[in-house]
Amino acid sequence: MAPVDTFDAVYAAHYAPLVRLAYVTVGSLPAAEDVVQDVFVEWYRRIDRVDAPAAYLRKAVVSRCSSWVRRRVLERRHAGTFDEALVAAPDPRIVAVRVALARLTPRQQSAVFLRYYLDLSVPEVAETLDCPLGTAKSLLHRGLARLQAHLEDR
Amino acid sequence: MIPEHRVADLVRAAVDAIPVVQPPSAALKARAVGRRRPARTWSPVLVAAAVGATVLAAAVALPGRPATPGAGEPTYRLPRELAGVSSRTATVAQDPPGRSIALFTERGEQVVLATDGVTYRKLDAGGTALLSPDGLAVVVSDPARATGEADVVDLRTGRAQRYAAGAPVALRPLAWSPDGRRVAFATQAIATGSGPAGVGVLDLDTRGFAPVADPRSGTGDGVVRAVFTATGTEVVASAGAEYGCTLRVYGVDAPTPSVPLAVDGPVDGCREVVTLGLHALSTRPDPDSFVIEAIPPLLLAVGERHGIVERLSFRGDAYGTGALPEPITLGSGDRFLGWNGRTGVYIGQSGGVVEAPLDGRGVVRMTRFGDDPVTNFQLATALAPESTLADVEPGAWPWSPARTATIAALLLLAAAAAVVLRRRRRRT
After folding, report:
1. What is the homologous superfamily of the domain B68-399 according to CATH?
2. Per residue in B192-244, pLDDT tens?
3. Fewer Cβ neighbours under 10 Å: the N or C end of chain B?
4. Using the beta-carbon criterion (under 8 Å), do B25 and A11 form an inter-chain contact?
5. Where are the domains of chain B?
6. What's the N-to-C CA distance of chain A in angstroms?
7. PANTHER family annotated for this entry (chain A) (predicted)?
């Protein structure tokens, strides 16, 4: 497959999930779109050198989101978490899940998303987060526990 | 408790509800082939470069020690107390000291002291070293190996040039010519360090090496010493334990059979006569009468055994008074370092350097050595008479401002490069 075809196919399949992944972490849809688009642009520039585009893109999105969160941590502390318009979904269960997700740490959010939305294995989550397997298990365990605790309160 | 699969379903439903509008892929491709944003990528490098330039400018502009120690100094400073070297002291090659006032050995290291009186640098090359009269170069050779090679280290650049004698002989530097363009060596086919030795002269301009004196037989107990006349065209040398009070004069440009120079008078009973230094005003001896009085004033040293010099004796009417200076008695380990203009000599002792006036008024202490023993102390003989004694602090920092600034700039650039690489790795 030519690089351009590869790009189009991967872009079509992974753009939306990656934006959602970024959004879960950064809590801002415009920021999530910027992050993901930057990652695709960077990938396109070196498309011949990337063997596993999906894993590469996931890892790049998580890495950039972490940087973004570090830069904006103070803003987030003062400005709340998720965009209110998005949190205010019509389904109360969805609202509850989004609020619960917003209470996780950025690393826990990414781990939960990768594990339960993208159905990655725990080793794949660890690789994407660039952390040891034990750390990934801990992030998932703590993230899941906090989600369960919050959802049970509702 | 909500089971894990139920939580997964809820997460999936919540995330799927996030509205995502996918822009056309062509838009991203256009961005990819468009101009990058170099300012963001290279900003750490630019910041580091700016900081480095600021540090360099500050190092040059700030008052105090010069950027190139010892270079272009209007005055030459000798410290009242010699500071010791440390393991952090840079070498001449790493951080050239510039014009230097002294050379000495401490803790097994040969060290030069720049004319600012505070900058110390270790010589990189091992061997016997001799500082030039103008303090700009050091000649180094190994008298224990018959390599026929000598290095001349430029103290302004730290670079060494190798010169070859053209024969496999051991070389021991004896003297620099007053203009710093020639060096006289003792030459030995078998390196012993003492005993019969010839004298050869290296011309730094032509790179030619001229043997001017062959080893003399029956001179196996002493040490050859030599000194140039003021013009640099003759070498007055002792042939090493030559019995009788005899020196010999050798021409350099056109080597000729040696001319014996009788020494008598105040040097009564000498077994060995060695020439340690001619006054700067000394010129060529009278060709028709090689008597000592023809060389005003000539410093002589009397060695009683194996080149151990026990007193300095003088010949020649330097002051036009008709009276010769009284001999100066030397203690064990004392060494003649050079003339202090027309009024006295510098003598290196075990604890420091003293100035001994020729009028016998007693010695004046100059530089005191530190706690560690200092040996083989030498002065840049052309600079020493112009030098001033100064109470200078050796300074806690062993590097020059220029070197410090350079290293700081390199560290900043390295840190900036690391930041850039790390950011790039994160992006990928």
Report:
1. TolB, C-terminal domain (2.120.10.30)
2. 665 667 888 899 999 988 888 777 665 555 567 777 876 777 777 765 545 55
3. N
4. yes
5. 40-67+400-428, 68-399
6. 49
7. ECF RNA POLYMERASE SIGMA FACTOR SIGM (PTHR43133:SF50), RNA POLYMERASE ECF-TYPE SIGMA FACTO (PTHR43133)
